[in-house]
Amino acid sequence: MTTGKKGEKTGTKKRKFPPPGKESRSVFSTALAMAKDLLKSNVLSINLDSNGSVDIVIDIEKLEAIPKDKFKQGLTPEHFSNLIRTELDSLVRVATYSDATKGIKNEIPSKILKDSGIDEFLWRLEEVRRELVPDNLRERATLRRTTQGLVLENMTWQVVIKKHDQTRGKLSDIPYGSLSIVYVSPQSNMASVRFGIKSMTVELPTVREPNQMILEVHQADVDQMIETLTDLRDNLEKVKKGK
Question: Considering the entire predicted model, what is its pTM?
Answer without folding.
Answer: 0.75
